[in-house]
From TrEMBL:
Protein name: Ribose-phosphate pyrophosphokinase
GO biological-process terms attached to the record: 5-phosphoribose 1-diphosphate biosynthetic process; purine nucleotide biosynthetic process; ribonucleoside monophosphate biosynthetic process
Record-linked NCBIfam families: PRK01259.1, ribP_PPkin
Native organism: Butyricicoccus pullicaecorum 1.2
Binding locations of Mg(2+): H134, D176
Any single GO CC term annotated in Swiss-Prot or TrEMBL for this entry: ribose phosphate diphosphokinase complex
UniProt KW Methyltransferase keyword: no
Gene name in the database record: prs
Essential cofactor(s): Mg(2+)
Classification of source organism: Bacteria, Bacillati, Bacillota, Clostridia, Eubacteriales
Pathway(s) this gene product operates in, as recorded in its UniProt entry: Metabolic intermediate biosynthesis; 5-phospho-alpha-D-ribose 1-diphosphate biosynthesis; 5-phospho-alpha-D-ribose 1-diphosphate from D-ribose 5-phosphate (route I): step 1/1
One Pfam family named in its UniProt record: Pribosyltran_N
Length: 319
């Protein structure tokens, strides 16, 4: 798949080695030799086991749980490659952690997403490749190129293949106002109607459904979101769609399955029939309940990496 002569190297930390192996294999490359360990006091130890001088280096690391460890692994790997004279370093972050803190919503709030952008740039990253940033304006926090892949490119064909197009009995639903643009794209591509749930969030990780905008009575519903953390928003939305809206069947999809705290128990006990996630975050076996289906993102990142390496446009992947 790789044609021109400049060396390309694929490395990964400990967050998602399976995904890194899939990408390297699809590119016809071995996974680079790197040892990423933790000292007894918790400090991260990184050793790159092969030359990267002049190479086009791609470091694959989702900043998921344990978030701070995975983030430090990535930053130290970037620094190690920069100091070893890598030609270009691309941080491949299928899931970009800290993206939810993208603005000051009240006095004395941090903007953590901007801080992470600064850390990645200072460490030595020349480019960032990620998927479905929680807020697209985070791209503007960087002074280096950021390619934000669309999880919709995997989820929409799956929904079309499972349910079909232009159905009268299926509605795309946004679980909150922040996901309306994402849900609208799904509705347009699938030629389906759109409904929106208007909710009020009293405090972090707690949501209260207030109103359903659109007609879901007697219909199947596909809830669309970018990430699912504790699943409170998703489950409350599903319950409201059944109890208030009169929906007959609830399905859901999201790009990132953070699934922290009581998420699995909530999903298991909810009216949600199926939940489709992308494997931007590696799900441990104990979280793989029958309701959850996982789709692979390796083909999307493989194509994006090949295009970046070949210096051709990545924009066709955004459609």
């Amino acid at each position: 798949m790789i044609s021109h002569g400049k060396n390309i190297k694929i490395f990964c930390g400990n967050s998602h080695p399976a995904l890194a192996m899939q990408i390297a294999s699809a590119l016809g490359l071995p996974l680079g030799k790197a040892t990423v360990n933790t000292f007894s006091d918790g400090e991260i130890s990184v050793s790159i086991g092969e030359s990267v001088r002049g190479s086009d280096v791609f470091l694959i690391q989702s900043t998921c749980e344990p978030v701070n460890n995975n983030l430090m692994e990535l930053l130290i790997m970037i620094d190690a490659c920069r100091r070893a004279s890598a030609g270009r370093i691309t941080a491949v972050m299928p899931y970009f952690g800290y993206a939810r803190q993208d603005r000051k919503s009240k006095a004395r709030d941090p903007i953590s997403a901007k801080l992470i952008a600064d850390l990645l740039t200072t460490a030595g990253a020349d480019r960032v490749l990620t998927m479905d940033l929680h807020a697209t304006q985070i791209q503007g926090f960087f002074n280096i190129p950021v390619d934000n892949m669309m999880g919709a490119s995997v989820l929409i064909p799956h929904i079309a293949g499972t349910f079909g197009l232009n159905r009268d009995d299926l509605v795309i639903v946004s679980p909150d106002l922040g996901s309306v643009n994402r849900a609208r794209k799904f509705a347009e591509k699938l030629d389906l109607p759109l409904a929106i749930i208007d909710k009020r969030r009293p405090k972090a990780n707690v949501s209260e459904v207030m109103n359903i905008i659109g007609d879901v009575r007697g219909k199947k519903v596909m809830l669309v979101d970018d990430l699912i953390d504790t699943a409170g928003t998703l489950v409350h939305a599903a319950e409201a769609l059944v109890e208030k809206g009169g929906a007959t069947e609830i399905h859901a999809c999201a790009s990132h399955g953070v699934l922290s705290g009581p998420a699995i128990e909530r999903i298991q006990n909810s009216p949600i029939k199926t939940l489709t996630l992308l494997d931007t975050i590696a799900l441990p076996q104990e979280k793989m309940i029958d309701k959850i289906h996982v789709l692979q993102v390796a083909p999307v990142f493989t194509e994006a990496i090949a295009r970046i390496y070949e210096e051709v446009s990545v924009s066709p992947l955004f459609d």
